[in-house]
Amino acid sequence: MVRVLFLHPDLGIGGAERLVVDAALALKERGHQVSFLTNHHDSTHCFKETADGSFPVHVVGDWLPRRLFGRFYAICAYLRMLYAAFYASFFMPQREQVDVVVCDLISVCIPVLRLARHRPRVLFYCHFPDQLLSSREGMLKRLYRMPINWLEEHTIGLADKVLVNSKFTLRVFQDTFRRLSTVPDVLYPSLHTQYFDQMRQKLEQRAALLDEQQPVHPRVPRNAFIYLDINRYERKKNHALALHSLRLLGDTLPASDFKRCRLIIAGGYDTRCLENVEHFAELEELTEKLKLQDNVVLLQSPTDEEKCRLLFAAHCLLYTPENEHFGIVPLEGMYCSKPVVALNSGGPTETVVNTSTGFLCEKQEKSFGAAMLQLFRDEPLRLKMGDQGHKRVQQKFSFQAFADRLNEIVQELLTIPKSSAAKKRE
Fold it and tell me: How far apart are CA 317 and CA 258, in angstroms?
């Protein structure tokens, strides 16, 4: 049994959070003792496993600011994680000392973790280089980011082991951190498929008890053809592409057919995040501008059960981000037997098989809309793609394989002698 601590900035409901929760579940199933340490955890805005007592969750440093003067998000995030790392290293009760710390997103905590008297092994999971996620806004922003970018590269190199979520991210990692000799391993995220199976059974039993299938939303008729777009309300997630593509679809289909079409955008929404609030309003405005009010439903932060109901009811899944480093949502869609329409870039090129489990499209509504039209018109193709997608997730992205490999990595970390800390320098 290994004592494992997951150190994560904010246990919300994003893709990174889903991955660390699934990793925690995988290690717990292998008999390890698992807990979380975070800067923020809202029991009403998180995955249920972090709120129902499945894991101990400790919150420290939430009183520290998330931003200063409406800016300096990165500096504040670094300070909050440093605070958490100092707590884990020097103030955590002796009975809660751990053998392995798994951290992600922010690497500045790694040197502090290495200073702990009971030196834990540090595993860093790189979803994507943080410096590439920061917008370029001129000379002052570049000067502000220079020390932060240097810290990111230097501190990642101090981890005992580094993992990335896809071959695409591995290439970006090596191109970005050229001074590091570290060669990360690829560990694809997976789905806790047992949860989806249990949820499907639960919803089917409920429908049988009520003797009817409940609509997924009051504005979605029972005979609707549902396009589902699941992603946070952030501009980089490119929800606008789905709206423009739907408008093109409406201009192509007969009015009677388009009347059945519904685009449901179900996005993570946090009132503390200004971009969430602004972008949601922007999408509402764009929906009105494109005259799609009768065909579009915008949902904020659906629960796990609501999300499953949407996935089971949808006819296909739309995935609009460009150069997404992995993207867990396409796997969720495929496991639920839905064809996936995604951009031909980033992680989806490793999960979605073009013309087999869905379509990989160009970043144009003409390309995206054509795929949406074909799936609307060709039911046998849609069903065949859904079946092939389900099988692909079972074969290539099984939770069992993910859990086995992660367990091996954790066990291997404990064989590293304390005196020979990882020699990962610039």
Answer: 17
* Residue 146 token pair: 């220079």
For 300-352, how does the pLDDT look when each residue is reduced to its tens digit (9 = 90+)?
Answer: 999 888 999 999 999 999 999 998 888 899 999 999 999 999 999 999 999 99
Residue 379 contacts residue 80 (beta carbons within 8 Å): no
Residue 355 makes CB contacts below 8 A (sequence gap 6+) with none
Q: What are phi and psi of 350, to 5 degrees?
A: -100, -15
What is the H or E stretch that residue 83 is in?
A: helix 73-86
How open is the CA angle 105-106-112, to the nearest 5 degrees?
A: 140
Query: Taking a C-beta distance cutoff of 8 angstroms, is the pair 138, 111 a contact?
Result: no
* pLDDT of 420 higher than 70: no
Q: How many separate helices (H) and strands (E) can be counted in the chain?
A: 16, 13
* Single pTM value for the model: 0.81
- Dihedrals φ, ψ of 180, to 5°? -90, 140
3-class SS shares of the chain: helix, strand, coil, % to 5: 45, 15, 35
In a 3-state reduction of DSSP, which class is residue 200? helix
What would the pLDDT profile of 184-239 be if each residue is shown by its tens digit? Answer: 999 999 888 888 999 999 988 887 777 666 778 889 998 999 999 999 999 999 99
Both tokens assigned to 71: 């800016």
What type of residue sits at position 412?
E
Distance in Å from the first CA to the final CA of the chain: 34
**What one-letter code names the amino acid at 329?**
V
Gap between the Cα atoms of 285 and 170, Å rounded: 38
Closest to 374 measured CA to CA, from 210, 249, 275: 249
- Can you point out the beta strands (E) in 114-253? 121-126, 161-164, 185-186, 225-230
Distance CA 308, CA 193 (A): 12
pLDDT band at 417 (very low <50, low <70, confident <90, very high): low
The C-alpha atoms of residue 165 and residue 189 are separated, in whole angstroms, by: 6
Instruction: Locate 102 and state its tokens.
Output: 């798994």
pLDDT of residue 212: 67
